[in-house]
Specification:
CATH superfamily: Glycosidases
Structural class: alpha/beta
Helix content: 25-40%
Strand content: 15-25%
Largest sheet: 7 strands, parallel
Oligomer: single chain
Number of helices: 15
Bound molecules: alpha-D-glucopyranose
Length: 478
């Protein structure tokens, strides 16, 4: 029996529409997903009109659905199917920037009185770096000025110091809420308002460190969501630099929950050096997770559309990863489509032209510039590429794995049932017993007089297990 409604635990299931089909295809998947995982929310990556240079994170119209995904009536149908299963739909709000093809930008370039201050324009560029590599300022011949783009040059940054921009996004939020959205995932949520453009610069750093989560950004977020009953989840940038203080500031004032990409990247990559892969540092990773997991507004994710698949990334059994995500305290866990099937990295091509993602191409170019051969560069790209996780899923696996008692899918299903229904797993406090270099993570969860023991072994030499206070094994990876 599930009683999702009143719980402070919220399970999010992420769907990347481009890899699934249209909105009706997504609606048709909901009964299967609901039966096995019982999510509270489904977060959909962007499905709006876009130039698709960055997987839909380059929007040209926030209130229009890209025709290949369907129409508004299909969105309404999706919402109504989800509602039957007590699932709310979360919309991806790509708010830091638009596409350079967005009419607002075109008009801003032309100095249109209404739109001229919708973006960040300077008469001389600063030497900030963009997140994907290369300069963060580009010249617009039409306007004879430079515009800021924290990401790709096709993604100009909006100017959130302009109240008209805030009003535009309030209207967009209202639009999707009226259409039935239950909330929003807010992209690059903590770097919206720039206020340090004239005071010089720190050479070599990604652009957003120059105005990292400034008070003005928090005010903008408060204004956007004030008085609305929505589930809102932040994607803050900053990885390792995203502190607890910043987390509280964001979640206390504007969000129901927040990711922290740093809690994953700390395992094998460092912020902004995603083209270098380090051996997994279990100590760093588990210690960081132990610090963050007990936060009631923290959302733990092991995968997303921005990362390779976790069983390949960490060379381990998907069941052990699932246990890490659901047996540590976990209040807003997020499962990325196909994760529950144990999907490994895709068998990607050796030709960079076949990679749709802007990041893969940028990383490839950077590696080649550093002197790597084609083969060396492609070997790295194949391993780290976001495109690994953006491939179609074999949804027939729900039927195949559903019929196999020991499948990854049924393992997830059992684990989620424990997470929902066993008070010690749901709410027990965390006590770390052992963290080893070789990937052993032993911890306890206690509530009242009960203490459960968890043994996770990423090397898979021993079974990973959850043992209750009577010594019974409640779940085991083998
Ligand atoms: C977020 C998205 C990512 C995108 C970036 C720029 O980090 O998750 O996919 O490339 O924002 O919009």
């Amino acid at each position: 029996m599930y009683n999702k409604g009143m719980s402070k635990h919220k399970l999010i299931y992420q769907i990347y529409p481009s890899a699934v089909g249209d909105l009706n295809d997504i609606a048709a998947l909901i009964p299967r997903i609901a039966e096995k995982l019982h999510p509270d929310y489904i977060w959909l990556n962007p499905f709006f009109e876009s130039t698709w240079k960055d997987g839909g994170y380059d929007v040209t119209d926030y209130c229009k659905i890209e025709p290949r995904f369907g129409r508004l009536k299909d969105f309404r149908h999706l919402v109504s199917v989800a509602k039957k299963y007590n699932i709310g739909i979360l919309i991806d709000l790509v708010i830091n920037h638009t596409s350079s093809e967005h009419p607002w930008f075109k008009l801003s370039e032309q100095h249109d009185p209404k739109y001229k201050d919708y973006y960040i324009w300077l008469d001389r560029p600063l030497n900030w770096k963009s997140f994907f590599g290369g300069p963060a300022f580009d010249y617009s011949a039409a306007r004879d000025e430079y515009y800021l783009h924290l990401y790709d040059s096709s993604q100009p940054d909006l100017n959130f110091n302009n109240p008209a921009v805030v009003r535009e996004f309030r209207a967009i939020i209202d639009f999707w809420t009226r259409e039935g959205a239950a909330g929003f995932r807010v992209d690059s949520a903590n770097v919206l308002a720039e206020d340090n453009l004239k005071k010089g610069f720190i050479p070599g750093l990604p652009g957003f460190f120059h105005y990292y989560q400034k008070p003005q950004t928090i005010k903008v977020l408060e204004r956007l969501f004030a008085g609305k009953k929505l589930y809102t989840i932040a994607e803050p940038v900053g990885g390792e630099f995203f502190s607890k203080r910043k987390f509280y500031e964001l979640t206390n004032r504007a969000f129901s929950a927040s990711f922290n990409v740093g809690t994953l990247d700390v395992a094998d990559s460092f912020f902004s050096t995603k083209d270098k892969v380090y051996p997994v540092n279990y100590r760093r990773w588990f210690r960081k997770l132990a610090k963050w997991a007990p936060e009631p507004k923290f959302s733990m994710a092991l995968e997303s559309h921005d990362a390779p698949r976790s069983p390949s990334r960490f060379s381990t059994d998907p069941r052990v990863l699932a246990m890490l995500q659901f047996l540590l305290p976990s209040y807003n866990p997020c499962i990325y489509q196909g994760q529950e099937l144990g999907t490994p990295n895709a068998n990607l091509s050796n030709n960079i032209q076949d990679y749709p993602g802007v990041q893969s191409r940028q990383v490839y170019r950077r590696l080649r510039r550093q002197g790597k051969t084609k083969e060396q560069a492609m070997a790295i790209v194949k391993r780290i590429s976001r495109d690994n996780a953006r491939q179609p899923i074999n949804w027939g696996e729900y039927i195949t794995q559903g019929g196999q008692d020991d499948s990854v899918l049924n393992f997830y299903s059992r684990l989620i049932e424990l997470w929902r229904n066993d008070p010690v797993v749901a709410d027990g406090t965390l006590r770390v017993r052992k963290i080893s270099k070789s990937g052993v993570f032993d911890f306890e969860r206690s509530l009242g007089k009960k203490t459960y023991r968890v043994h996770l072994d990423f090397s898979c030499k021993t079974p990973s297990v959850l043992i209750n206070d009577s010594g019974e094994t409640l779940i085991s990876s083998k």
